[in-house]
Structures are given as structure tokens and as C-alpha cells.
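RECORD TYPE: inverse folding
INPUT: C-alpha cells
STRUCTURE:
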């Protein structure tokens, strides 16, 4: 799946709250959410079920080593129970010895005082960087802007709380104290085990999502549907050809020499309804209406536009989730360096998270649904 789209879908997992003490005026609903807070000390662990929000703050480091160390294990255990506290008997030295042996460790660098994931670098003026260091290099820096966040060290899987299962993945977390990650949820269950220093974890069940300001607030089911549809392609490309030549002729005459007009056309409306029907069903099942994608039903009024070779367009309406461009004549366009051809009657449905222009390669004529009959 295309990077931007993947990021757009993934944004539902992260909160806009990037402060240790969320600003009441900006995030008032956070203070009404049902959540609990736990301070983990060495030898203690917490179970965070998949999709539960968590906000993790490494607080004091260990007074002897100067480090705050944890390890977590991910696994889709299907354990239906809620978050809970527990103990572990992992040996920190054994774990550190394995970490020390690694030729390079993934290290996040953030001067922000908190650690959003590296894939968000563009949202934070590229201040977050991912680096590779050895354990000794990391230790010698004593730099609070650095955080080892290394996953997939296979040898650590022997410490798994699910020893019978080979699909468990571990991740080690080592910093010099006072680091925190923005609230988010993960797709798997998680046993988070504290090894050195103290770690505060604030946890909220997934049904508190609306109080936690996700970066992408659209309904989960809709996003999952879009994700499924777009797995192999960064946009949905319908390639029907059910607009008759006579309809195109009629529209061409109506538009004349103008570059764009709004027109009503029953034949176009009927063709469009056929075209969209399968996607409409999905949207209806998800209870998603005009605010996200239009039209969700029939469309009677269309914005017809003639593009000239070399024209560029950006997402037309950033308040909508998805835009659609329908080809009335053959359309050839370039999306991020790749050329795509759409037959008359075909359509491209693309996410409005795209921030780059789409370039038109040949003169063409397109229709964009302008008014949904259900719209207000
Ligand atoms: Fe997490």
C-alpha cells in the first residue's frame, strides 16, 4: 500500500496529544475519559490488550546505572481480559548482555522531549530521526534525546510470557529517564515488563477513542474497508466503461468552449450510480455519509472539467476523506512519478491525505460528483 495512504490509515492509532500533561483547553475530553494509571517498578509488568490506548512515560532512571530499561512482548493472544498488573522474574543483566551483542540498535533521536514514532518525522519538521548505534556508543552519549527502541532481537524471545508460541515479538526500551511516547494503540496484546527505573503507564480501553483525539478520527470499520480495498493500489481505480458515446457527446456540447461547468445529466447520473453501487453498499454498512465521501447515493449534478496536458491538481476538498475523479474521455495522469490510464467511465478514488499534485498527461474531460441528493 502507498506510503501516504498507509500513514493516513495508521494515524487512527495515534493521538494528537503530545504533552505529558495534556492542555485542558485543547484536550478537555481527555479529562473525562475512563483511564487508569500505573507506576511500574523493576520486577513489575502490565498487560495492555491490543487496541487499548496507552501513554508510556519513562520516569526516574535506575540510580546506579542511570538507565531506564523495559522489555515488552507482543502477541495476538486473544486473551479477552482487560488490562492488568503482574510480576515477572526476568533478569535485566541477561537481557542487556544480549542487547550488547547486537551490531546495531535502532535508536530514536528526538529533541522534542517526547518520542513520536519515526514515521511521523514530517509532522514534526523532521526533528525525529532514527539512527543506528551499538549499545556502547549509546551509553557513552548520555544523551536524553536518544532512546533505544530496538525490536526483533530473536534471542530475547526465550523470555516470552507465551513460551509455547513462536510468533511472539519482543522490543527493548532503553533511555536515560524522562522520555515519553504519545498516546497510541498497537494491534497486538502486550506484556510490558519494567527492568530498571520507573515507568508510568496510562491506559484507556479502545472505546475511549473519541476522548483521546486520534489523528485520524474516521470510523474504524470504514478505514479497515478502505485499507482492504487499497492493499495493492494506493487508490481505488474503477475501470468500468459504461458511459455511452452519446452521453459524452451531449456533455461535450454542453460544456462547449468553457473549461468547466456544472451540469445535470440523467444518463450520467444513472451510469455513475451503477459505477458506485458496490462502494456505496460498503459505506452504508458503515453508516458513513456525505461528510466522508460523496456521493453516497445517486448524484444529479456534476462538475465537468476540461484538463489540459500539464495541468496539475491537488486534493480539492481537504475536509473530505476521499475524492473521486471520473473520466469522460481517456485520462492519463501521473501520480508520484507513475503513469496511470483511466478509460472513459473509469474513476480514480483517492485519499485526501495526498499532499502532492496529480499531473495530467493528455487533454481530457472529467466529471466530479458535485451534489449528493442526500446532502443538506
Ligand atoms: Fe505501544
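DESIGNED SEQUENCE:
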Amino acid at each position: 500500500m502507498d506510503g501516504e495512504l498507509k500513514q493516513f490509515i495508521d494515524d487512527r492509532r495515534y493521538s494528537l496529544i503530545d504533552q505529558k500533561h495534556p492542555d485542558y483547553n485543547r484536550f478537555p475530553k481527555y479529562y473525562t475519559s475512563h483511564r487508569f494509571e500505573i507506576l511500574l517498578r523493576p520486577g513489575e509488568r502490565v498487560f495492555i490488550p491490543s487496541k487499548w490506548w496507552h501513554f508510556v512515560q519513562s520516569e526516574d532512571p535506575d540510580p546506579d546505572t542511570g538507565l531506564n530499561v523495559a522489555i515488552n512482548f507482543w502477541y495476538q493472544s486473544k486473551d479477552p481480559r482487560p488490562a492488568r498488573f503482574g510480576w515477572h522474574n526476568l533478569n535485566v543483566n541477561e537481557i542487556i548482555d544480549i542487547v550488547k551483542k547486537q551490531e546495531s540498535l535502532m535508536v530514536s533521536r528526538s529533541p522534542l522531549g517526547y518520542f513520536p514514532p519515526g514515521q511521523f518525522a514530517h509532522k514534526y519538521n523532521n526533528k525525529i530521526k532514527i539512527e543506528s548505534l551499538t549499545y556502547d556508543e549509546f551509553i557513552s552519549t548520555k544523551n536524553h534525546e536518544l532512546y533505544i527502541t530496538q525490536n526483533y532481537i530473536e534471542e530475547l524471545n526465550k523470555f516470552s510470557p507465551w513460551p509455547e508460541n513462536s510468533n511472539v515479538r519482543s522490543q527493548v526500551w532503553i533511555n536515560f529517564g524522562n522520555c515519553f511516547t504519545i498516546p497510541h494503540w498497537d494491534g497486538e496484546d502486550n506484556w510490558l515488563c519494567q527492568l530498571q527505573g520507573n515507568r508510568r503507564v496510562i491506559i484507556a480501553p479502545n472505546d475511549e477513542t473519541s476522548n483521546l483525539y486520534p489523528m485520524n478520527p474516521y470510523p474504524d470499520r470504514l478505514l479497515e474497508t478502505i485499507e482492504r480495498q487499497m492493499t495493492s493500489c494506493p487508490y481505488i481505480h474503477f475501470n468500468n466503461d459504461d458511459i455511452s458515446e452519446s452521453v459524452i457527446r451531449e456533455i461535450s456540447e454542453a460544456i462547449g468552449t468553457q473549461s468547466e461547468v456544472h451540469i445535470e445529466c440523467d444518463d450520467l447520473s444513472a451510469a455513475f450510480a451503477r459505477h458506485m453501487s458496490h462502494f456505496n453498499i460498503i459505506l452504508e454498512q458503515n453508516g458513513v455519509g456525505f461528510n466522508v465521501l460523496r456521493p453516497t447515493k445517486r448524484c444529479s449534478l456534476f462538475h465537468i472539467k476540461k484538463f489540459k496536458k500539464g495541468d496539475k491538481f491537488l486534493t480539492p476538498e481537504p475536509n473530505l476523506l476521499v475524492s473521486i475523479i471520473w473520466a469522460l474521455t481517456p485520462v492519463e495522469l501521473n501520480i508520484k512519478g507513475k503513469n496511470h490510464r483511466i478509460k472513459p467511465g473509469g474513476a480514480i478514488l483517492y485519499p485526501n491525505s495526498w499532499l502532492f499534485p496529480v499531473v495530467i498527461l493528455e487533454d481530457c474531460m472529467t466529471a466530479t460528483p458535485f451534489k449528493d441528493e442526500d446532502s443538506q
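NOTES: The longest strand covers residues 299-307.
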